[in-house]
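Sanity check

After download, print the first record. It should look like this:
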Amino acid sequence: MAKFKEGDWVEITPQPDPLSRVWNSYLHDKFCGRYGTVYNIAESEGNVSLNIRVFFEEGVFGDEGYRYAWFEDKHVLLSSEWEANRKVALQEEYEEYMRVEKKMKQKRDEMLSEIFTPEHLKKKEKPKKEEVLTDREYDTDDEEASYGVFDIMDLYNSKP
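Expected structure tokens:
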């Protein structure tokens, strides 16, 4: 077994251990596969227990923040802060990739359905009515600018 000291970064085992004397499925299962730091160490009867501090995002325990739980030394692996940050960054990049991939698939499916769907199966969309503004309606606040292009041309072309 590795020797742990307070402040060490550790990774908690990814699988629950229901046969352990300290494992509580409600609490400990949420810590599986996460990284944390050793907060406290207790030894009794030859067994080493570690109090691990892990940061949880909002939604896991109800609110965002650090949570603590005791684990046996066989449930944790010595790790580093770099590895914990790397895992978080990879997860964020993967989630961003999945969002982009989902949008790309939707666009592709829309294009293919537009091209290959027979006319009688396509949804009939009502054409949108475009609102046409006259020259005088473009800018009604400024009296000098209230004349449109065609009004000025009419004034220019008109003979006195």
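If your output differs, re-run the checksum step. Summary of this record's structure: Residues 81-116 form the longest helix (36 residues).
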